[in-house]
Amino acid sequence: MAEQHTPRSLIFTLYGAYGRAPDNAPLPVAELIRLLGALGVDAPSVRSSVSRLKRRGLLVPERTAEGAAGYALSAEARQVLDDGDRRIYARPSPRLSDGWLLAVFSVPEAERHKRHLLRSRLGRLGFGTAAPGVWIAPGRLHEETGHTLRRLQLDPYVDLFSGRHLGFEPTAGAAARWWDLATIAGQHQDFLDAHAPVLRAWEERGVVSPEDAYRDYLLALGAWRRLVYTDPGLPGELLPTDWPGERSAEVFAQLHRRLRDLGAAFVTRQAAAE
């Protein structure tokens, strides 16, 4: 299945990879158009997507040091990206001893649109469904969950609990009910099908191109970022045999080590030339 990358997701992935300088300097609009153009996104789509990210409070308009129009990350966006770093780059070895995080929510009927938003956002954080109105995730996700619910002003409707699974069904069987593990495994395999050949090609090529590295890295990072928010990162003893998650994680880690800094040369090329 071909991967789908929206302009908005690519812009956010770009900022996550290369747009978080310590001084939070804005990226010029012209540079955003150049960098997204290398990924096949035209200028009108870039401008439209930037406007949507601005309306969502993720980008803020600022002038660059040279006076050009640009956009910087909002504090909210930096928090989202910082939370994401722990999933994307530093996935810890999951342990059953970490326990579970339970989210129990109740939303008045008059605000049922928030019920849909809650379910959607918990699913996007990697929660599974233990029972109606009861969602479950590995315990280590509690901090990010708290950040997300407060940011969306959904925390008044949710109670969070930590604990252990005490029975009666074996935990592995229960996890297979709480998450659609077959679908998640399929997404890992899709990632491998798309990006393992890219890694092999880079291992075999002699001439390196910063623009090619940037393009291949951004596409892999965008796909991996979506995947790690679908896969909650369960302990191995709860997963089916021949789980593809470790293989896909290694492919991404190798692409990151090989391409990230090389791609940065393409991102900074224009600034260096001026």
* H and E order: HEHHEEHEHEEHEHHHHH
Helix content: 55-70%
Strand pairing plus helix content: what structural class?
alpha+beta
Shape: globular
Oligomer class: single chain
Poorly predicted parts: none
Strand order of the largest sheet: 5-6-4-7
Terminal Cα span: 41 Å
| Number of E-state strands | 7
The main pleated sheet reads as: 4 strands, antiparallel
Rg for CA atoms? 20 Å
> Approximately how much beta-strand content do the residues carry?
5-15%
In DSSP terms (H or I, runs of 4 or more residues), the helix count works out at 11
- Report mean pLDDT, rounded to a whole number: 89
Describe the fold and architecture:
Helix content is 55%, strand content 12%. The mean pLDDT is 89. The longest helix is centred in the C-terminal third of the chain and has 24 residues. Helix 4 packs antiparallel against helix 6. It has a four-stranded antiparallel sheet with strand order 5-6-4-7. A three-stranded antiparallel sheet has the order 1-3-2. It has 274 residues and is α+β, with helices and mostly antiparallel strands. The termini are far apart. A hairpin with a 2-residue loop joins strand 5 and strand 6. The chain is globular, with a radius of gyration of 20 Å.
